[in-house]
Every structure is written in structure tokens, then in C-alpha cells.
Amino acid sequence: SPALADTLADLSRLDGASRLPLGRLSTGEVDEFIRTSTGVTAPAELAAALGELTGGTPLLLCELWRGLLESGDVEIGDDGVRLARPAGELRSPERIRDVVRQRLSRLSGDAGMLLELAAVVGPTFALALVADATQLDQATLLTAVDETVAAGMIEASGAPFRFTHELVRRAGYDRTT
User: Fold this and answer.
1) Are 54 and 61 spatial neighbours (Cβ–Cβ below 8 Å)?
2) For the segment 56-75, what is each residue's pLDDT rounded down to a tens digit?
3) Can you give the pTM of this predicted structure?
4) What is the DSSP letter of 24?
């Protein structure tokens, strides 16, 4: 937004201020985040599951963690931390769904339809399968793919295509249910 851009510009002019890009967190760093947040040890499977769901993206991890706490889907006790239900059943946090909805609203109808259908297929998908479901001609389909790649929703670095983050896929899937 313009307000954010103005704020970032103001901050960049301050002496000693610098922007630090955050990379993806490793499973060990996700584990450390959980341990720091709760004060107790988490099983390795939990850190791996949260890392996989978020792709190690710090923002997504924080939003997922906040959502898990608010919904009661994570249980914290003296003996450790555990999910109250399987990771495969977790929904994308509301704030992430809002961000995905906003990003989808900027896409053409064809690109939005492509993402929603691909989300039903799974984290990875064959373009031919989604193409059959969309019934778009090849040129329109490729334009929609380019648009979704440019928006950072899917990666097209070979076959099969894949969503950039599982939570993004789940947010797209949630739109269809």
C-alpha cells in the first residue's frame, strides 16, 4: 500500500536502519521457534510438519502458529507440545486466507480458476490435468499460468507444477469448499 511504501522509505533514510531479508527457516529453526514460544520441547515431527506447511517462511509460520494457538489445535503441556489433530487436517489461518483472497482478486478470472482447480488436485499438479478441468484454450491457459507464477502462487520450474506454499494451496482449496 502507499502508506507502507512511505513508511519503508522513511525508515530507510534513518541512520543505522537497514532492511534484512528473511530466508526460509530450517526444521531446526522452526523447532527453536516452537521451543522459544512455548518453553517446552516439541517433537521433531511437529517442527517438520509446520516447516513443510509453511515452506519455512517466517510470516507463514507466525500466522500458522497464532492460528493453532487461537483454535486450540496445538496443545502445550509440561511434557511438550503436540497437535490436537493431524497436520493434514489443519486449515490455512484466516489471515493467510485473507492475503490469498486479496492476491487472487488481483488475478484474472482464468488465473483464479486455474489456482482453485489446481488446489483441489494437491500440492503438485500436472498442467494437462488442470487444463482439462478448466477447458481453456492453450494460449489462455498459458497466460493464466504465467500470471499465477508472476504472482508468486505457483512455481513452474518443471513438471509437475507446485504451489509455493502448502498454506497458499489450502487457502485456495478453502475457496472451493
Assistant:
1) yes
2) 889 889 988 998 998 889 99
3) 0.69
4) P
Structure confidence by residue, pLDDT tens digits, 34-57: 999 999 888 888 999 999 888 888
Asked if 151 and 108 count as a contact pair (C-beta separation under 8 A), the reply is: no
Environment class of 78 (CB within 10 Å of its CB; exposed 0-12, middle 13-18, buried 19+): exposed
Rounded to 10°, the helix 27-38/44-54 angle is 110
Number of H helices, E strands in the chain: 9, 5
- For cell 500470471, the residue is 147
Structure letter (DSSP) for residue 139? H
User: d(Cα 137, Cα 121) in Å, to the nearest integer?
Assistant: 20
Which of 63, 68, 56, 60 is closest to 32 using CA atoms? 56
Q: What are phi and psi of 158, to 5 degrees?
A: 130, -175
Q: Which helix (H) or strand (E) holds 58?
A: helix 58-71
CA–CA distance, 101 with 91 (Å, rounded to integer): 15
